[in-house]
Amino acid sequence: MSTKPFIKSIQGVEIYYEYYKNPGKTTLILIHGFLSSSFCYRKIIPLLKDEFNLVAIDLPPFGQSEKSRTFVYSYRNMAKIIIKLAELLNIHEAILVGHSMGGQISLYAIKEKPELFKKVVLLCSSAYLKKSPPSLIFGSHIPYFYLYIKRWLAKQGVLENLRNVVYNASLIDQEMMNGYLKPFLDDRIFKALTRLIRHREGDLSSDVLKEIEVPSLLIWGEEDRIVPLQIGERLHQDLPNSTFNVLKQTGHLVPEENPDFVSDKIANFSLM
Predict the structure, then answer these.
(1) Each residue's pLDDT tens digit, 134-187
(2) Of the residues 100, 126, 140, 270, which is catalytic?
(3) Based on the structure, what is the number of domains in the chain?
């Protein structure tokens, strides 16, 4: 087994990913959520890397991937990056693990190329969101709109944002704050986020979700304030081959808050 960070150019964008190689083992592809990165899987990777072939991706413009000013930041294009990376690494029948927005992008990837993915794990996955309203899309074309995004995020602050996504605030330490803050020290991310606001489609509809037949495992925090539990329950109803697990005293950031439970459930589901 070896582990090493890599950069690959995919669709004209430099993509950062970590590859924990375990030849012959089932492959898990880990997809993070909005304003996050592969850092969010730091606690479950050590628990899974001996049993699985692991790939953790930083979707653009997040983490250490390129903050391109030309890439079209649609969910479909992000899904295509996952597909292309899997193909470049000669990975077949992978299991996608997506947190928050990463869950929705995982579903897009399955819709785009179902034969490449045999299962999906959705951790507090976003769902049923509409595309950005026309007024916001119009505003994104205004010069220096990115400075508004920067000010808004700075006003929230990394500590307040983390308090919103965890149930137990005592979990927040300096390492956690530094890890989630690091990508935002590069000002180019704010211009890229402006494009994401402009390009993001709505989430997949109920009708489309009902056509996704791959087995899916849903894990939700009962105290999730970002994607409430009722969203998970609705998603469970729409995905025809899904199982649903709820974690008490847990918020939105389930890979950080309850890594032992999450990794055990992922392992059992993946090896069935």
Answers:
(1) 999 998 999 899 998 999 888 888 899 999 999 999 999 999 999 999 989 899
(2) 100
(3) 1
Decide if 159 is inside a domain: no
Residue 193 lies in a domain: no
| pLDDT per residue as tens digits for the range 71-119 | 999 999 999 999 999 999 999 999 999 999 999 999 999 999 999 999 9
Query: How far is Cα 13 from Cα 181, in angstroms, rounded to an integer?
Result: 22
pLDDT of 80-93, one tens digit each?
Answer: 999 999 999 999 99
Is residue 58 in some structural domain? yes
Q: Is 236 a catalytic residue?
A: no
Kindly state whether residue 151 falls inside one of the protein's structural domains.
no
Residue 49: predicted pLDDT: 95
32, 99, 199, 252: the catalytic one is 252
The predicted model scores a pTM of 0.95
d(CA 144, CA 204): 31
Quick check: is 2 catalytic?
Answer: no
**CATH classification at residue 258:** 3.40.50.1820
Mean per-residue pLDDT, 4-10: 88
Q: Mean pLDDT over all residues of the chain?
A: 95
